[in-house]
Amino acid sequence: MSPPERRDFIYRHLHEHRTVSIGALVELLNVSHMTVRRDIRILEDEGKVISITGGVQLNDALRQELPWSEKALINHRNKRALGKYAASLVKDGQVVYLDAGTTTFEIAQVLAERFNLTIVTNDFSITQYLMNKPQLNLFHTGGQVDKRNYSCVGNTAAMVLRTLNIDIAFISTSSWDLEHGVSTPHEEKVFVKQMLLEIARRKILISDSSKYGKYGMFRICSLSSLNDIVCDGLLAMPEQQQLQEIGLKLHIVDI
Q1: Taking every annotated instance into account, which residue ranges of this chain make up the domain HTH deoR-type (predicted)?
Q2: Radius of gyration for the chain, computed over Cα atoms and rounded to the nearest angstrom
């Protein structure tokens, strides 16, 4: 495994486990303590992780997201369960927006077997998957291409959305909590998500619990701007109670 591959492995592993010891990484990577510490130091310089006594943890202040292909490998079982549940919230005849993301891709796979739906998305993977489903109406926003996440972002995509009436929008995120709301490290994503908040009748944040407590530089909205949140049962009970207290509907999905 090359040094960049090792560092990618460490970063992906932390997205699943939040914190990991140096010793565990030495065993997983089959390298020396010195090599692991060197990789961690580079990741720390990039702002992705924070060293702690005897180990390393994710930096809650996100500076960069993982690319789509890597995110798809993380917490897949959780995402599949969330996607199946979220699809059950969709009624026949609705116009449904699926935000770019690996969890919304799971929704698309379930909705692909439905009839009498219109799907709008900025995600190329979702578009490609649904392309051969003739019973569905399918729209892609177009716009500036985000190559890392196989999607379109920016003002052009947002302006296309402005021309539509969306019944239910499933919004993805890499970071969210009560203090910082929904946020992102990438300014271009803000335009699309904020437009959805304006035009969608029902706005649903869908995210696995590993993303709670992180925050990016750019704030999209407060959680109170949403109608629903779909999350897994690994979200801590105090956080669940606080979310319910702000007046939104919290859907906890058993994995």
Answers
A1: 3-58
A2: 19
pTM recorded for the entire structure: 0.80
3-state secondary structure 109-130: HHHCCCCCCEEEECEHHHHHHH
Tokens 């009748």, located at residue: 201
- Domain assignments of the chain as residue spans, ordered by start: 3-58, 68-253
Same fold, 3-58 and 68-253: no
Tens digit of pLDDT for each residue in 67-110?
Answer: 666 665 566 788 999 999 999 999 999 999 999 999 999 999 99
Q: How far is CA 59 from CA 148, 180, 232, in A?
A: 20, 15, 22
Encoding tokens for residue 118?
A: 């219109």
Q: Helix or strand or coil: residue 94? A: coil
Question: Architecture of domain 3-58 in CATH?
Answer: Orthogonal Bundle (1.10)
CATH number for region 68-253: 3.40.50.1360
pLDDT at 119: 98
Residue 232: beta bridge partners? 253
